[in-house]
UniProtKB/TrEMBL annotation:
Radical SAM core domain segment(s): 146-358
Organism expressing this protein natively: Roseiconus lacunae
The keyword S-adenosyl-L-methionine belongs to this UniProt entry's keyword annotation: yes
Gene (UniProt): epmB
Pfam families membership: Fer4_12 (PF13353)
NCBIfam families reported in the protein's UniProt record: EFP_modif_epmB, KamA family radical SAM protein
Membership in a protein family: Belongs to the radical SAM superfamily. KamA family.
Alphabetically ordered keywords of this record: 4Fe-4S, Iron, Iron-sulfur, Isomerase, Metal-binding, Pyridoxal phosphate, S-adenosyl-L-methionine
Protein name: L-lysine 2,3-aminomutase
Co-factor(s): pyridoxal 5'-phosphate; [4Fe-4S] cluster
Region listing for Disordered, in residue ranges: 1-56
Length: 376
């Protein structure tokens, strides 16, 4: 979906799976006072504007997501002049559930900075390139990335629950590699033919953008391969749209014969609200092991207080901090760069304030290396 060739919006296909009544584009209530908590109140002139008065399905949450930067600004009560047009092929995409955690009227909010296109995105900076981690060179048939011993990654779907402006997959040619439902056979054949693959990672995009039924089909195929012992899902959906943790999903993951690890992606403690914590708790109680990975991002989490709060929020919700990634030097993301020396200092400070298990490993991805590389 992030390919410049792709013209269709995969989020719309997802929304078609929705069973509840789909809702159109949101509008901020003009009646809300500046300090009032955000509520999706229908504008008087439109009878068909969504409201958050009741829960909607996760598919509807995807469908009614904010898709324009000026709209996002208005929604969170800041001047639309803060909005830059988003890069071609990577539009603004923010579900209301996530936007509601942005502090109203604060242009430097750490969630807003992750999702609002900035002018800086269009600056060409030497060293920031289209494919910084070399994924395009290692992809196997059917959307499999097999870079590391024992682990293979399937690009299950190109779509995501939110568009993170620092994303290293921004320019990934999903239209060629995306192992869509009907196209999983080559990926499964590849994994079946290599007995060294003990662990399969489902990534994307976001694998939980798949319907529970599609995911079940894929997991059952993997369970039938005897050398595959572990399943790992890399997903931001439990953070962005917590109602994605459906009972059917819980049953699928908890009852699988594969040991299941779920790796969420959060960068700031403000991304957690009671619904997110409840979803994580439900998963943990069903025996699904939870990890988190973050990206070290300038003016989002590059201070010891933010990282410390994030780790505490995670461990209090039963999620172990796994990796803190150095930003991949992807084109258009240079304004998120944090010098590695600063990251190392922050990690040292975290170590003095947190239990050892709450300090993530600071890594970067270097093309051609046999593992993630420790930043030292
Ligand atoms: C990061 C990554 C993995 C997993 O690496 P771990 O260190 O085991 O978390 C596997 N495959 C690919 C292609 C990756 O990028
Ligand atoms: S959810 Fe992950 S893959 Fe999708 S845009 Fe964000 S960082 Fe990129």
């Amino acid at each position: 979906m992030f390919s410049h060739e792709t013209r269709t919006d995969p989020h719309l296909a997802i929304a078609e799976q929705a069973t509840d009544k789909p809702a159109p584009t949101p509008m901020r209530s003009e009646a809300a006072g500046d300090s009032a908590p955000l509520k999706h109140v229908a504008a008087a002139t439109s009878g068909d504007v969504p409201s958050n008065s009741g829960p909607v399905s996760w598919q509807t949450a995807m469908k009614r997501a904010i898709r324009r930067s000026d709209e996002l600004c208005r929604y969170v009560g800041i001047d639309p002049a803060f909005a830059a047009p988003s890069a071609e092929g990577f539009p603004t995409f923010v579900p209301l559930e996530f936007a509601d955690r942005i502090k109203r009227g604060d242009p430097s909010d750490p969630i807003l900075r992750q999702v609002l296109p900035a002018d800086d995105e269009r600056h060409e900076v030497p060293g920031f390139v289209a494919d910084p981690v070399g994924d395009l060179r290692v992809s196997q048939a059917g959307g499999v990335l097999h870079k590391y011993d024992g682990r293979a990654l399937i690009v299950t779907h190109g779509a995501c629950a939110v568009h993170c402006r620092y994303c290293f997959r921004k320019e990934f040619p999903y239209s060629e590699l995306n192992a869509q439902k009907s196209k999983w056979k080559p990926a499964l054949d590849y994994i079946r033919s290599d007995p060294s693959i003990e662990e399969v990672l489902l990534s994307g995009g976001d694998p939980l953008v798949l319907s529970d039924q599609s995911l079940r089909t894929l997991v059952e195929e993997l369970e039938s391969i005897s050398h595959v012992r572990r399943l790992r899902l890399h997903t931001r959906l439990p953070i962005v749209i917590p109602q994605r943790i459906t009972d059917a999903l819980l049953d699928l993951l908890a009852e699988s014969s594969l040991m299941t690890w779920l790796v969420i992606h959060a960068n700031h403690s403000q991304e957690f609200d009671p619904a997110v914590v409840e979803g994580l708790t439900r998963m943990r109680r069903r025996g699904i092991a939870l990890l988190n990975q973050s990206v070290l991002l300038s003016q989002v989490n590059d201070d010891v207080e933010s990282l410390c709060d994030l780790s505490k929020t995670l461990i209090n919700a039963g999620v172990q901090p796994y990796y803190l990634h150095q930003l991949d030097q992807v084109r258009g993301a240079s304004h998120f760069w944090v010098p590695p020396e600063k990251g190392l200092e922050l990690i040292d400070q975290l170590r003095t304030q947190l239990p050892g298990y709450a300090v993530p490993t600071f890594v970067r991805e270097q093309s051609g290396q046999p593992s993630k590389t420790l930043v030292v």
